[in-house]
């Protein structure tokens, strides 16, 4: 697939405009558009399961008749974008190019043998150059058996095993249409010929014309089916349904088993004394009674009384219910309050507070204010949907995140709790050349220069101005053309509706979301214009999200301002949807997925290592160091000694000293260490300019041995690259927002003596947040099962980040507060905070250290 | 520290007393009632309200033995809940220490109890008024000590004196800090040690005292006599004893036991405010430190580790400020990084939600760097050391100096913490 196809698609579209053939084909999502004009349409990979869920929103409630004039124009434009079938084909091509999901199998002799007759026509269908015969003819994606043989049989079977397994079914392929072929079936015979991987192509190539073919399949009953097979479908389909709000009932019942969680929106208004009813509850989810509902009176009292006691409104409470700790977070608006309660063993307090902030912000973005969000009964289904997703994610172990975890090894979802509370978007930096291309595409879209297809061509004032776009791939931010606040709004929406999770898993067919929003930037804190004499145009804003495969493009549209003021409740404009879709296709055709994959798969810069690795090497190298007492002169030994303490500063853990320093002869190890130290110092030094200069100021006293060996140079070159990249990041942020920027960089190191010098690296994990841009960078951890320790380390790391971040935030916040209680200034101006860990595993001590930088 | 402490009966919600610290207005009665009311309302639904956090304050509720409700309102200093819980436990134990558990559990006459509790005010105020406190014991749950050099001599004198008092519990206090104590004395729980030391230092000065005390854990219902006898300015000998001998007889015998080591006692008195022996030399960059022995419940603190004026190096931090910084650093570290010390006396502590419990690996060291000073802390199996440095010390030296300091302070043969 290349760009020309996409262009061809466009030409075709314009062809149809020229000939003015008014055969309006409604897009797939058209039926899902609500009266209010909102759309939330999610389509799974297979076109067979198409789910559209209504998500209502609060709009001004004006009737649609008001904009008949607009509608007339509308139809005209709609006619322009008469969609051809072609695009669907493109999509299908893309789908087939994608490597299907891995399905594995139990080897079992007992299986039901099924015979299926398929009418095939090799001439009819062409899935593209890469499709195998099997796919072309039957729509079956062939696969190997016993890749994950849980019978304990070794992998050699998989080498010998030439049997063909049905690994996937192509949408609307013959096999899928027949309904009798299931994933995981063993394709034994075709027209009674025994087939295997060696002969399948030759047998299939014999089929040249339309023909009826008999397939013999052996099926294994569900019990014997490996969990992977059993789970395969639910993941995608289930998640799609979930996101689309189809499984609301299911989730609700599952949630009932988890006690003590609630969302309440309470009011003091019009509540009589001893009210037995629930007049004070404006909104409640889940609707079941529990203790937290019973004591809602306490929440509302607390919320309103606290001001008298402490001159500030409450944030959270801790309760003990049946011996279980439950945290409750509050958000007050006028005489009403939103209460969110969650059990502490699932959601720690700091996470709850962040969730609360996010929810409030999201509510304000979607509905303008908490009152309008919860006050309007019509919003209830939409809110139920949102909160079911929220609880599902937070409380249920079988949540999509954890379930999908095995599948997407690359996404460290186990630490998502912290990352999500960062108020930033995960950013995947791509090479410049790729970025240029992506940015070009996005800019083209934003320019809204659609030539003869634009409204201008028809002398109509344009409906929307495109304010900006941002592009996500598999949940990572790729490119952003939005201001930070808007980006965060969009990201929150995507996150809380699980759309990011959805795309990071299996590819989705199509996602179209259309929603009127109230961006934070324009509705809060807009008291004084930032630039004198300029005020943001007064209009309405709409969020359009289009997703395909792993990619998602969010577009913020503005009506009003220089575009037509929107009236009533505009429906999603197919023209804009298609434009966005085209851009996505163009990007995908340009190899976006491949670029991102390369980036995701490639060892990250700065290179990381797994903690477990050191455990293995440590014992060996210890021995080696011991057995080879270096006949080095004592001065050099002393030099390396002095280096070791210096290492503290450079985030070197003590394990070196405690385990190795006891042996007096570890000069060699120390030498290596000092090399790594300077590397490590660069890692952290590059994190921010400030810390960098600090580092440099410190390094001179220490003999640096970077140039001593070639391998050292290779090591340092890695870090130079790293340094460049990182300074670039921090440089932009520094200039843009010097003072308030909190640039945190965290590095964890380990100093086990290495067997080979220079080629290893001691950075486990890092995280760099840029509050100014609202993005953070963190490596894609390979949470492979072989590294349980690495997983621990990363989890620990995230917990710690949380603690450290709290400290840092407090220290910056304090200066601005003037409460009843005089602020404690003794910890003001924290510059750096570090924690050193040791994890005792197998008698070895692995130390990691975390450091934080604040520039300001 | 600005704080409110409210004490009410759990049954009737009758206020027993309320203490206000810092420059804040006292709470109106209605607000006190509501604060207690929300807690009572929750408990009628079998839910216990533990704490509430606002933007800059924290409120904690605690019901002790089903009869006394304590409500603490204090500034949110970023410290963990562990410190707050510890403070509440200390307040209740202070009440037990002076009034006895029986009177607190079976409240027959509220008015009488109110009067009895008046004697606790000073001690409780001292617990609340953390920043001005000279000691760290209230925070660490480990009693402050003085590390003197000639302890063997003093130990002998103390043992003899305590034996004469027909007791096994006795110690020598230097301005509220324990210099030497009998083995049994060290057997008391950390909280008891801290509270008795604090009590003695809050009592009005006098050459000798004799007051009844209950041991919150040891004997919460049977009172003992706490006799203190001043040896020299700032140094007192304390004995926990039964009805005999009388205070007069004890003071008569005072000279017999304490005349021989009098010079040692005097030199001990001079250790204040350095608090540890002059022969131990620590790094000049250290502005102050707290060393906690978590097993023996002892802690050593010093914000004047040097003789000469420490203003020499441009560190213009007052001693009070140094103490405040160390306190804040401690509060931030305990619960957030290090696990809080478990209180033996609080079996029904219930589940907590400290960040430290979520850490999978054991933290060993932590530090914070500030514009004007630096803090470093490390913990071993037994010890926790928190050190405050001036800004001059280079970063890389922090770790080694801290380690060395720990070594100096703990490895000395003559003086053991």
Automatic annotation (TrEMBL), chain A:
The keyword Hydrolase does not apply. InterPro entries: CCZ1/INTU/HSP4_longin_1 (IPR043987), CCZ1/INTU_longin_2 (IPR043988), INTU (IPR039151), PDZ_sf (IPR036034). PANTHER family: PROTEIN INTURNED (PTHR21082). Residues 466-584 form the CCZ1/INTU second Longin domain. The keyword Metal-binding does not apply. Keywords: Cilium biogenesis/degradation, Cytoplasm, Developmental protein. Residues 1-23, 619-722 are annotated as: Disordered. Residues 260-367 form the CCZ1/INTU/HSP4 first Longin domain. Belongs to the inturned family. It is found in: Cytoplasm. Residues 680-691, 706-719 have a biased composition (Polar residues). It holds the Pfam family Intu_longin_2. Residues 655-668 have a biased composition (Low complexity). This is Protein inturned. Residues 619-629, 692-701 have a biased composition (Basic and acidic residues).
From TrEMBL, chain B:
Pfam families: Fuz_longin_1 (PF19036), Fuz_longin_2 (PF19037), Fuz_longin_3 (PF19038). It is found in: Cytoplasm, Cytoskeleton. Transmembrane segments: none annotated. Residues 285-413 form the FUZ/MON1/HPS1 third Longin domain. Residues 4-126 form the FUZ/MON1/HPS1 first Longin domain. Keywords: Cytoplasm, Cytoskeleton. Its main location: cytoplasm. Residues 166-258 form the FUZ/MON1/HPS1 second Longin domain. InterPro entries: FUZ/MON1/HPS1_longin_1, FUZ/MON1/HPS1_longin_2, FUZ/MON1/HPS1_longin_3, Fuzzy. Belongs to the fuzzy family. This is Protein fuzzy homolog. It comes from Priapulus caudatus. The lineage of its organism: Eukaryota, Metazoa, Ecdysozoa, Scalidophora, Priapulida. The gene is LOC106805270.
């Amino acid at each position: 697939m290349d760009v020309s196809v996409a262009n061809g698609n466009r030409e075709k579209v314009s062809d149809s405009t020229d000939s003015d053939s008014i055969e309006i084909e409604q897009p797939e999502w058209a039926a899902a558009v609500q009266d209010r004009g909102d759309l939330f349409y999610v389509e799974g990979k297979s076109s067979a399961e198409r789910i559209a869920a209504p998500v209502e929103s609060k709009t001004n409630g004006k009737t649609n008749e008001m904009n008949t004039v607009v509608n007339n124009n509308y139809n005209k434009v709609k006619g322009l974008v008469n969609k051809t079938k072609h695009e669907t084909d493109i999509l299908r091509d893309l789908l087939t190019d994608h490597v299907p999901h891995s399905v594995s199998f139990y080897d079992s002799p007992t299986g039901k043998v099924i015979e299926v007759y398929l009418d095939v026509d090799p001439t009819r269908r062409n899935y593209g150059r890469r499709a195998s015969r099997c796919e072309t003819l039957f729509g079956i994606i062939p696969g190997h058996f016993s890749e994950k043989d849980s019978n304990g049989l070794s992998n050699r079977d998989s080498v010998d095993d030439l049997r063909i397994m049905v690994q996937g079914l192509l949408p609307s392929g013959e096999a899928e249409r027949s309904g009798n072929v299931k994933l995981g079936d063993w394709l034994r015979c075709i027209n009674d010929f025994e087939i295997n991987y060696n002969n399948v192509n030759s047998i299939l190539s014999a089929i040249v014309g339309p023909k009826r073919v008999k397939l013999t399949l052996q099926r294994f009953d569900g019990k014997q089916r490996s969990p992977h097979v059993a789970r395969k479908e639910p993941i995608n389909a289930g998640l799609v349904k979930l996101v689309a709000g189809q499984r609301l009932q299911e989730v609700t019942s599952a949630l009932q088993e988890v006690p003590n969680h609630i969302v309440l929106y309470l009011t003091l208004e019009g509540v009589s004394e001893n009210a037995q009813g629930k007049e004070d509850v404006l909104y409640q989810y889940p609707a079941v009674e529990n203790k937290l509902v019973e004591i809602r009176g306490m929440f509302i009292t607390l919320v309103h009384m606290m001001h008298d006691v402490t001159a500030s409104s409450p944030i959270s409470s801790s309760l003990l219910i049946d011996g279980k700790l439950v945290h409750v977070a509050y958000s007050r608006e006028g005489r009403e309050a939103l209460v969110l309660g969650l059990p502490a063993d699932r959601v720690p307090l700091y996470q709850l507070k962040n969730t609360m902030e996010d929810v409030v912000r999201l509510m304000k973005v979607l509905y303008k204010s908490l009152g309008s969000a919860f006050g309007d009964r019509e919003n209830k289904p939409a809110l139920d949907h949102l909160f079911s997703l929220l609880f599902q994610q937070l409380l249920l172990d079988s949540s999509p995140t954890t379930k999908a975890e095995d599948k997407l090894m690359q996404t460290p979802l186990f630490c998502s709790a912290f990352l999500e509370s960062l108020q930033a978007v995960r950013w995947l930096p791509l090479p410049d050349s790729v970025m240029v291309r992506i940015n070009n595409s996005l800019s083209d879209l934003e320019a809204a220069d659609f030539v003869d297809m634009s409204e201008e061509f028809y002398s109509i004032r344009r409906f929307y101005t495109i304010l900006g776009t941002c592009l996500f791939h598999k949940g990572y931010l790729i490119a952003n053309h939005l201001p930070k606040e808007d980006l965060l709004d969009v990201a929150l929406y995507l996150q809380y509706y699980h759309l990011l999770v959805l795309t990071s898993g299996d590819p989705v067919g199509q996602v179209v979301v259309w929603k009127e929003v109230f961006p934070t930037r324009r509705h809060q804190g807009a008291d004084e214009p930032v630039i004198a004499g300029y005020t943001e145009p007064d209009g309405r804003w709409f969020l359009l999200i289009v997703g395909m495969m792993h990619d998602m493009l969010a577009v913020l549209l503005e009506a009003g301002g220089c575009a037509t003021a929107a009236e009533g409740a505009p429906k999603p404009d197919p023209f804009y949807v298609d434009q966005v879709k085209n851009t996505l296709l163009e990007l995908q055709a340009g190899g976006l997925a491949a670029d991102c994959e390369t980036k995701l798969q490639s060892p990250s810069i700065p290179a990381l290592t797994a903690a477990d690795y050191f455990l293995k090497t440590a014992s060996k190298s210890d021995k080696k160091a011991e057995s080879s007492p270096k006949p080095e002169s004592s001065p050099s030994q002393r030099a390396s000694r002095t280096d070791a303490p210096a290492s503290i500063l450079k985030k070197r853990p003590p394990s070196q000293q405690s385990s190795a320093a006891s042996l007096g002869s570890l000069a060699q190890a120390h030498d290596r260490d000092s090399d790594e130290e300077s590397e490590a110092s660069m890692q952290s030094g590059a994190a921010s300019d400030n810390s960098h200069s600090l580092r440099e100021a410190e390094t001179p006293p220490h003999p640096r041995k970077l140039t001593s060996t070639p391998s050292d140079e290779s090591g340092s070159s890695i870090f130079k690259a790293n340094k460049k990249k990182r300074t670039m990041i921090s440089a932009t942020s520094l200039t843009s927002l010097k003072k308030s920027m909190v640039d945190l960089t965290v590095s964890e190191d380990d100093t086990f003596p290495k067997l080979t010098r220079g080629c290893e690296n001691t950075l486990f994990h890092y995280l760099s947040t840029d509050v100014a841009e609202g993005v953070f960078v963190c490596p894609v951890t390979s949470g492979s099962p072989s590294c349980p320790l690495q997983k621990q380390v990363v989890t620990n790391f995230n917990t710690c980040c949380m603690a450290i971040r709290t400290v840092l935030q407090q220290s910056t916040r304090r200066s601005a507060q003037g409460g009843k209680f005089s602020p404690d200034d003794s910890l003001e101006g924290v510059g750096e905070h570090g924690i050193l860990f040791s994890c005792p595993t197998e008698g070895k001590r692995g130390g990691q250290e975390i450091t934080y930088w604040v520039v300001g | 520290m600005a704080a409110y402490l409210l004490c009410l009966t759990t049954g009737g919600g009758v206020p027993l007393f309320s203490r206000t610290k810092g420059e804040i207005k006292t709470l109106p009665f209605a607000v006190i009632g509501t604060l207690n009311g929300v807690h009572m309302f929750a408990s009628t639904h079998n839910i216990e309200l533990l704490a509430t956090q606002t933007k800059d304050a924290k409120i904690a509720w605690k019901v002790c033995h089903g009869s006394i409700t304590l409500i603490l309102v204090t500034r949110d200093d970023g410290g963990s809940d562990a410190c707050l819980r510890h403070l509440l436990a200390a307040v209740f134990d202070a009440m037990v220490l002076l009034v006895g558990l029986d009177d607190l559990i079976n409240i027959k006459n509220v008015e009488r109890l109110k009067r009895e509790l008046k004697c606790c005010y000073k001690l409780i105020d001292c617990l609340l008024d953390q920043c001005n406190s000279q000691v760290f014991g209230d925070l660490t749950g480990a009693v402050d000590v003085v590390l003197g050099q000639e302890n063997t001599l003093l130990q002998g004198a103390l043992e003899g004196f305590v034996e004469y008092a027909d007791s096994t519990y006795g110690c020598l206090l230097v301005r509220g800090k324990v210099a030497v104590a009998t083995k049994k004395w060290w057997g008391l729980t950390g909280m008891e040690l801290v509270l008795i030391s604090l009590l003695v230092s809050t009592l009005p000065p006098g050459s000798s005292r004799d007051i009844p005390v209950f041991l919150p854990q040891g004997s919460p219902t049977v009172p003992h006599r706490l006799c203190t006898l001043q040896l020299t300015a700032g140094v007192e000998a304390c004995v926990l004893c039964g009805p005999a001998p009388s205070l007069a007889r004890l003071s008569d015998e005072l000279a017999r036991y304490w005349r021989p080591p009098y010079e040692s006692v005097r030199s001990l008195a001079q250790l204040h405010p350095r608090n540890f022996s002059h022969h131990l030399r620590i790094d000049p960059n250290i502005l102050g430190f707290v060393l906690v022995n978590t097993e023996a419940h002892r802690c050593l603190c010093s914000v004047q580790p040097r003789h000469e004026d420490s203003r020499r190096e441009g560190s213009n931090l007052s001693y009070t400020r140094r103490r405040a910084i160390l306190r804040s650093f401690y509060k931030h570290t305990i619960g957030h990084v290090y696990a809080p010390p478990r209180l033996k006396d609080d079996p029904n502590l219930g589940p907590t939600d400290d960040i430290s419990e979520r850490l999978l690996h054991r933290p060993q060291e932590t530090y914070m760097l500030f514009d004007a000073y630096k803090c470093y802390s490390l913990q071993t199996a037994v010890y926790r050391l928190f050190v405050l440095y001036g800004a001059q010390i280079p970063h890389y030296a922090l770790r080694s100096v801290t380690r060395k300091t720990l070594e100096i302070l703990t490895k000395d043969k003559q003086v053991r913490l």
